[in-house]
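About this split. The held-out portion is used to measure sequence recovery: a designer receives only the structure tokens and must propose an amino acid at every position. Recovery is the fraction of positions where the proposal matches the reference. Here is one held-out target exactly as it appears in the evaluation file.
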């Protein structure tokens, strides 16, 4: 899959930075799940929203008591199966769920780096799959890497990374700022916007 130097750089970050990075990417994936739920009435997108909010809370509230196991169970019941739907939106919706489950697993295991790389790859995969679907064919990593949509996704990820990497210690203002900026933008990695 599309590799990027960001994956090597993530190794230099601490676990709270990995978790914040993943939460940011899940914020950018959430509108894809939301749109799919709106279109199909498959599930209540608020479930995803609530789980992601709990993760943000765990980053900003000292000693927040959150049962990540039960959140993972709830999420697993709300992941659509591709074969059950004929709409394309099921694929970005699944990717959004995969990313959030990686994030939950990182909270359960305490291992954050591998999951941060997975979430990064999941987000870029959503963009790559849509580009290949539009083009009607498979593309090489070289071809994909040259596409503006892919460049834009990497730029977004690098931007979040750079803001986090600049912190010496856990910066609550930065975490809250990233969260509110992404929530207010309410636009996904493939340009889906949440209509309030």
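Reference sequence for scoring:
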């Amino acid at each position: 899959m599309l590799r990027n130097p960001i994956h090597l750089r993530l190794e230099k970050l601490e676990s709270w930075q990995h978790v914040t990075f993943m939460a940011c990417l899940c914020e950018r994936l959430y509108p894809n799940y939301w749109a799919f739920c709106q279109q199909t009435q498959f599930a209540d997108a608020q479930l995803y929203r609530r789980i992601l909010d709990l993760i943000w809370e765990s980053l900003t509230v000292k000693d927040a008591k959150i049962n990540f196991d039960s959140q993972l169970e709830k999420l697993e019941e709300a992941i659509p199966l591709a074969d059950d739907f004929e709409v394309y939106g099921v694929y970005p919706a699944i990717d959004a769920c995969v990313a959030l489950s990686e994030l939950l697993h990182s909270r359960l295991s305490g291992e954050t780096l591998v999951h941060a790389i997975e979430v990064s790859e999941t987000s870029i995969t959503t963009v790559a799959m849509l580009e290949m679907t539009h083009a009607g064919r498979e593309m090489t990593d070289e071809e994909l890497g040259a596409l503006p949509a892919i460049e834009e996704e990497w730029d977004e990820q690098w931007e979040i990374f750079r803001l986090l990497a600049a912190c010496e210690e856990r910066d609550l203002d930065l975490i809250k700022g990233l969260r509110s900026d992404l929530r207010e933008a309410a636009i996904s990695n493939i340009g889906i916007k949440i209509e309030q």
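Annotator remark: The longest helix spans residues 15-40.
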